[in-house]
Queue: 2 jobs
Job 1
Amino acid sequence: MEDAPRYKRIVLKISGEALAGEKGFGIEPEIVDSIAAQVTEVNRLGVHVGVVVGGGNIWRGAEAEARGMDRATADYMGMLATVINALALQDALEQRGCQCRVQTAIEMREVAEPFIRRRALRHMEKGRVVIFAAGTGNPYFSTDTTAALRAAEIEADAMLKATREEGVFDDDPRTNPNARKFDAIAYLDVLRLGLKVMDTTATSLCMDNHIPIIVFDVGRAGNILKVVMGEPIGTRVGVHG
């Protein structure tokens, strides 16, 4: 392991499903606490940490839309679900003595700050973790795209995509035991092959702003620190892989 972190400023993207664990729905306290412990460990190294959380463990907008709900309404409900997850993670971080702020793209001043780029950067400079909630504030954009956008806005060195898989595979490893894991892959190959790393908007945004994406299994304790320190785990998505 290197003496100093490889990445000084990161955006950690956590899916709502990852927070639910094996239940598949709701919030699993043990998982939230594990993630909080890992984020606290990284934060104490002086790394600036931004977090974007999904909301799929509480609300699945795509399923609601398939049943006939208006797409924009379904998306706004999903944004509110991310705020619930953000507050749960904030509480877990603060219980560990890690200072944290939640910023939302939809104003709700009673529970969180509005997203202001300069204020987010100032929080990070003061050693606080910033959780970005409520997506971009607009329907039709995923939380993956939110993570890519926030990473570009705060000039992050990398985007860490925390999943329940060990990295990016050429097929679904849950149904195909012969699926091959990529150690590294180029942005354009992800787009060309239609790999489900992130949606195309998010991948393109990271590519345009030269932000590497590291996809890894957040379920293994210590993996966030390993990625930040530059250990070769998961899959790295970059210009040349």
Job 2
Amino acid sequence: MKRIAIIGGGIGGLTAALSLRQFGFEPEVFEQAPELFEVGAAIAMWPNAMRIFERLGISEEIIRRAGTIEQVCWLNSKGKQLNSTRFPKSATPAVALHRADLQSVLLRALPSSSIHLGKVFQSFQQEGREVHARFVDGSRICCDLLIGCDGLHSHVRTQILDDSPPVFRGYMVWRGTTAAVPRELNPATAIEIHGRGQRFGLGPVGLNRMGWWASANENLWAINAQSAPLEQQRELLTLFAGWYAPVLELIEGTPSASIVKTAAYDRPSTREWGIGSATLLGDAVHPTTPNLGQGGCMAIEDAVVLARCLDKYGADAEGLRAYEKLRFARTKAVSDYSRVYGSLGQWQTAWAVRLRSVALSLAPQAITRQLLRLIFDYDAYRVSI
């Protein structure tokens, strides 16, 4: 049995472990946190991800905890509808749920003995066909394959690529979840609201809750600016004063301590994902701005394609290079699309905002649905390897 070590116990790392077990491997997950408690707010699981969870046998449990999304609407800041699109009918739903709920489902599907907590990765070294990894606590492991799933600021990536830091895209993002759901919002509907250099999105996340996100253009210095949770909430209420009423209701109804503020980052795509018997997966290699809700979905797709390649080509460097080659074009296209869409969404001059509103209102549904299909219809279990 090949020894496979996964560095990082987030959504991508846990899905990779579950996918590999489906093909007969017995991977071990090494997570730096002393407890696996997923911070953050809601996460969208579009059909391309849910199709994978169906094959892994956990989709029904996810759906029980999630909110179903059947259509998306675009509004201006006053609540006037610019356009709407109902998702193509499919046996596989689009859903959203809290990250902690998704993580708990994945954890229960894995043997507890395969999850190792409090393991802060330090470095690895290839010695012959083996990989020797060292952790901050002084412990070491020896494995045949090392998979870096340790996120945007990946330490595994630093050793493999030694490249520049991720790129700040000029805006901040806030996220929250609340049980205070405004009555006028339509069920099973995701809404994106556009203003001048600001956006607000919302949608059902299951268990009678609503998830939301907000974005606003800010300078680079704001990335490290720290503010108390209550101040963040007040900041948002000031930024979105005068907007569509449910926006302010959702912000006010969210516990201030649960609001998460992050900067929008991604990286230029690279063809080099690994070296020797080590590779990367998810945000560690192709972090994506949050505009399409595809960051987690891309990691989930990675997990299945990786497992299939190791099953077909062998759990060695050949299998890793096949996986990397197969995933490059798909992840680059989604990352680029998300970056461009976010850039357009953050336009703030008066003429640009008017142009965007006109373009949105005139966009035919047929074109919008076709663009959605390019993302939603991907099936990681059917892609030719």
